[in-house]
Amino acid sequence: MQLLITTQVQENYGAHDWDGEGACPQYWKFKGGSDYKYDLGKFGRSEEAITELVMALRGKIEQSNDYVREYILGYEVVADDYLTEFERSQLEYDGRIAYPSIKLTLSEETV
User: Fold this and answer.
1) Which of 6, 53, 66, 71 could share a disulfide with 24, CB 3.0–4.6 Å?
2) What's residue 110's pLDDT?
3) Amino acid 18: pLDDT
4) How far is 8 from 31, CA to CA, in rounded Å?
5) 72: which strand partners?
6) Which of 91, 84, 69 is nearest to 3 (CA)?
7) pLDDT for position 108
8) What is the pTM of this model?
9) DSSP secondary structure string, 18-33?
10) CA-CA distances (angstroms) from residue 16 to 32, 68, 100, 111?
């Protein structure tokens, strides 16, 4: 089983012409997102444990500054052979997955 985490990315178009003086202009545009996978091993986890795991992984995924934001939209437990929509479309159109989901890891002390 794997944990699949889906994110949303926003880019601040107001920051492109910003000279670094004063407040950064705010003009955020949605720019897609990413899919992250974490291998849960042979055993599933409780809903509470999955939520704790997502919170532990949050620091490896989310970012926010004057130029870009990325934040978690949702997560779910999926099968080991699960392919995201993007991975499936690559297989369909290109015959291979050139850009797989991002694999995440944690040290045991973190969870």
Assistant:
1) 66
2) 52
3) 80
4) 7
5) 7
6) 84
7) 62
8) 0.86
9) --SSSSPP--EEE---
10) 19, 11, 29, 38
Question: What contacts 99, CB < 8 A, 6 or more positions away?
Answer: 86, 90
Give residue 22's region: left, alpha or beta (phi > 0; psi -120 to 50): left
Closest CA to 7 of 66, 45, 58, 81: 58
Q: Exposed/middle/buried for 87, CB within 10 Å: 0-12, 13-18, 19+?
A: middle
**Tokens at residue 97, please?**
């997955």
Token pair 């704790």: residue: 52
pLDDT in tens, the chain (111 residues): 999 999 999 999 888 878 878 888 888 999 999 999 999 987 678 899 999 999 999 999 999 998 999 999 999 999 999 999 999 999 999 999 999 999 999 876 555
Candidates 67, 70, 75, 72; CA nearest to 9 is: 70
Structure tokens at 29: 């545009």
- The one-letter code for the residue type at 93 is Y
